[in-house]
Design a protein that fits this description.
Elements lengths: L4 E2 L7 E10 L2 E10 L7 E6 L9 H9 L3 E6 L23 H13 L4 E7 L1 H12 L6 E7 L9 H17 L4 E3 L31 E3 H16 L7 E6 L11 H4 L6 H8 L6 E6 L11 H18 L2
Parallel strand pairs: 4-5, 4-6, 6-7, 7-10, 10-11
Antiparallel strand pairs: 1-2, 2-3, 3-5, 8-9
Helix pairs in contact: 3-5, 4-5
């Protein structure tokens, strides 16, 4: 019997700590959060968050519960609930490091009598989920993948993407802790948090308002993973890719910050999703934010309608 404890979210949310061998920083843990449906079900979803993020999207969990899925989410190592005092936030040398907690979480979900699992991810988590499904086709309990604005490419100009990122990635091999200025739009978290200009409550220490720099280790890990996507991977299970209808980069606060993806270029998401071989569905969400499930009420309602309509055709 897995020994869960009450989670910080309360209201039936539980968590369990997953322990792993020490890495280059020392002790490593990840955290699996669950919220069970009131319906007895063999279906479950495993959700993976994005960069500088953690699981707090309770409305998404409750939507899955209402549709007959037990909900599980990972706080990956060195993020959110899993960050230990001796660790650097999000410090990773290779995205494959996360395979250990994804596999451990899937083992637990299967032990808890789930045979039909949706693997889901947002942004960096979408990149991780896509590659995990491609790398582990023997995980037969994973029946489909849903990615919400997956991080298939850096949102930079042509020269920066083709020359700058490869050079920084190479430096990241030998100088992983070196920090480079970040180009993340400063209005994104402002558009979300209830104390600023949004409606959502979350921990600003775990999902900060700004990130002025990024470690080269992260750039290297993402670049190596994205190269696989760019070459074209193959999936043997259905994939749903969702993204906003537009990308904007507002310099001042305006409505673009509330109706656009201000983090990634939606054209890149669509371009590289089309390179994935298999049963791939790409859907555009009008006025969606980077995290589509945190968009305005009518937008996220559309996200859930389209998601569950798609799931009804793919997981029967």
């Amino acid at each position: 019997m897995n020994q869960y404890t009450a989670d910080i979210l309360g209201d039936g949310y539980q968590q369990i700590t997953l322990n792993f061998p020490d890495d280059y920083e020392g002790k490593v843990v990840a955290t699996l959060v669950r919220k069970k449906s009131n319906i007895n079900t063999s279906r479950a979803v495993l959700y993976i968050h994005g960069f500088l993020d953690y699981f707090f999207q309770t409305q998404m969990a409750e939507q899955f519960n209402q549709h007959g899925y037990d909900f599980y989410a990972l706080d990956l190592r060195k993020y959110g609930r899993s960050k230990l005092p001796h660790q650097i936030f999000y410090n990773v040398l290779d995205l494959k490091e996360y395979d250990a907690e994804i596999s451990a979480a899937l083992d637990i979900i299967q032990q808890e009598q789930h045979q039909e699992i949706l693997l889901a991810g947002h942004s960096t988590g979408g990149l991780i989920a896509t590659l995990y499904a491609a790398h582990y086709p023997e995980q037969h309990s994973i029946r489909a993948v849903w990615v919400n604005s997956p991080f298939y490419e850096f949102n930079l100009n042509f020269i920066e993407k083709k020359l700058g990122i490869p050079v920084l990635s190479q430096f990241g091999r030998v100088l992983p802790k070196f920090k480079f200025p970040s180009k993340l739009n400063r209005w994104y978290v402002t558009s979300l948090h209830h104390s600023l200009k949004g409606e959502w409550a979350f921990n600003l220490d775990w999902k900060p308002k700004t990130a002025s720099t990024v470690q080269l280790s992260f750039i290297h890990a993402i670049h190596e993973a994205q190269k696989e996507i760019h070459k074209g991977i193959k999936l043997n299970i259905p994939l749903l890719v969702m993204h906003s209808h537009q990308t904007k980069n507002p310099k001042k606060w305006n409505k673009d910050a509330t109706q656009s993806d201000v983090i990634l270029d939606v054209k890149d998401i669509k371009k590289y999703a089309k390179k994935i071989q298999g049963d791939v569905t790409i859907q555009t969400i009008s006025n969606g934010l980077h995290d589509l499930v945190l968009s305005a009420t009518d937008v996220r309602d559309q996200v859930y309608r389209q998601l569950f309509d798609w799931l009804d055709t793919k997981i029967s």
